[in-house]
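As described in the Methods, two query proteins were run sequentially through the folding procedure within a single session, without resetting any intermediate state between them. The first query and its resulting structure tokens are shown here.
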Amino acid sequence: MKTKTSTFTGHLAALFTIIVWGTTVISSTKLLNGGLSPAEVIICRFFLAFVLLNIIYPPRLKFEGIKRELMYAVSGLLGVTMYFFLEIVALQYTKAANVSVIFATSPFFCGVFSLFSKKADKPKFNFFIGFALAITGIILVTFEDGFTFDLNVTGALFAIGSALSWGLYSLLSKTIGTYGHNVIQTTRRIFMYGLIFMIPTVFIFDVDVKHLSLLADTEMLFNLLYLGLCASGICFLTWSHATNTLGPVKATTYIYGTPLVTIIFSYFFLKSQTLTVQLFIGAALIIAGLVISITKSTHSENKKTKRRKK
């Protein structure tokens, strides 16, 4: 049974996660520009996260049947291998802001996918109103330079693929949360399968052990540790908590804020963004869309709960 405290921590976990994830494209871009390949960034990132989770909570998760193991494997494929590989490849073809705005459509995909799931919460009408407002704001924020859609088709397709993968992963994460295991154990098992599915990329893409020497640069090392330990190791745990307490549909609405975070950090660290009136209007619409998507659905759920008690 959900309590006000658990719901509050769920919102807090989702907010923290999105703030961190909104900055990851900055770190990924710096690592790619520094000479690492997409496959090298992803493999090193999740290997570090896997090691961190083993240190934090060593007890192993026991085998509980093929069905559950397949759930972990598919989650690893979608939420780790496919999502992050598609995103980081997209960054090679288009701007970080473009990738971020397309990823922000993943709540919509999650909402649509949930309609075909018997267990997942179904999106309410206000969810789609909030989505429309948020996407309008996101477009204003991202394309504030006169709506010149400088978007590479290849990059867009990879980014859309990453949004689809994350939408499905969020639904699976909620199901895995019902197994009753420690979230570190389940996340570590998902990471394990994600790393296994990454093995073929070693032979297909540019992976060279000599590139590890690039990490002698302090900035490169910091960005990799940030991605591995914080954005992956810690944030996957906080995201699991958010989806378990809020539900995947409500939790993913926080992703609307990702482009806004990305734009702000791009301004300070990549020097590729200017602050304009249009940006502030877009930011207001994003926040309004997020509030509408979350607040009204919460009120309707509280009314249903009161009716059941009566």
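Immediately afterward, the second query was submitted; its sequence and tokens are:
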Amino acid sequence: MTEASDAPRPLVVRLRNWVGDAILGVPALHLLAAHGYQLQLVGKAWSQALLAGEGWPTHAYPRSLRERVALLRRLRQQARTLDAGFDRRENAMVLTTSISSALELRLAGLRAVGYAQEARGFLLARSEPSTYGGHALASYWQLACRFLRIEQPPPASIDLKLAPADVAAADALLRQHGIAPGFIVICPFAGGQFEKLDKTWPAFAAFTQRLLALGRPVLACPGPGEEAVLRERFAGVLGLEGIKLGVYGAILRRAALLVSNDTGPAHLAAAVGTPVLSVLGPTKPEQWAPWGPSVSVVRRTQPPSAIAWPEADEVLTRATAMLASA
């Protein structure tokens, strides 16, 4: 087993491009850090707010290939000043699976380890056979284990750390709106599709009206472009708009329950230990369900080329049971 060392060992890590995927990669990052690697993370701009509590330097990658390679070259140069052997060892990990991400690392002179997908093995210092099909968190964890040349099962929970400033901002926001403990958060939005099928539960609005009848405050934190949908279809729900991801995570940590579609906030809630009721349509739970001991999934068996969603009353029964057991 690789032991942690006092000598600096910088490691450049290319994060995934979606919030949920980035969160599912956090245990792998924890493992690498525990083995003495000083992480330099590169990902979407929102990853800085998402991972602010972890203390890892996190760099937003630019839009153009030229600028991305320039950023990676700067990180490589900085690492070489700390670690004389940086260029002689495997010094990067790519959690994304695209050929373009491997190419950027190669052009920057980095020796990356990643999965051999999109025929990109020739761009990597070491390419590993894909584990696609199992849970995404286990896939990212396994790649970190292979990098370290160890075998170890993934943890039961993600345990994402939150920045104290984000926790304080969330608590102040809840006090401002008079929200007491025991509140529920809903996330009736879903970005993108799964295998070209809609991930948005069609009965979410009807379910929410039943949920409001329980007498608990119900909140939502809509993202850009989602505010109007919340106002028009979810009367009675308090919308907290313009919330950055770190503060969103702190709000979720205070919640009694999150009810959500297949989307990033469900993974964020699970990562901070909040009970999550994940309503899935076409999404495969064995691959993409939120990860953690307080996660419950409700999903119907899918017919070919269609989506079978649960009924509003069925989800309400599950939500009521989870609230009662909290």
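The longest helix spans residues 65-82. We note this only descriptively and draw no conclusion about the first query from it.
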